Amino acid sequence: xxxxxxxxxxxxxxxxxxxxxxxxxxxxxxxxxxxxxxxxxxxxxxxxxxxxxxxxxxxxxxxxxxxxxxxxxxxxxxxxxxxxxxxxxxxxxxxxxxxxxxxxxxxxxxxxxxxxxxxxxxxxxxxxxxxxxxxxxxxxxxx
Length: 143
Prior knowledge:
single chain, alpha+beta
């Protein structure tokens, strides 16, 4: 093998290592898919509920969450109509779980039992953001 062939082989090996390293970095930087906490609740004390509900945006924000739905008009297409729907978006399922298990959320349990009850409450993982194209790709990232 002459010097030119060795140089070409070394260059190709370097490119392969660089591509593999870039792919590994992108995989590490991949963002976890968002999660949505969805609850169907029944308000049992309409006078006390607003004060109780006002405590939750700060608790959700501490766990990277924010409200998307807090009651509001619903349109039922199939099944039974919900009483009152609440949807909180979180950066990840881990954040949604940590919100529900947090001391701040748990401390409100006695008050919660006086003003509302959960009919159903669950978290669902959303669709992950599109992975950006490889470095040097001519395809722009999907929006």
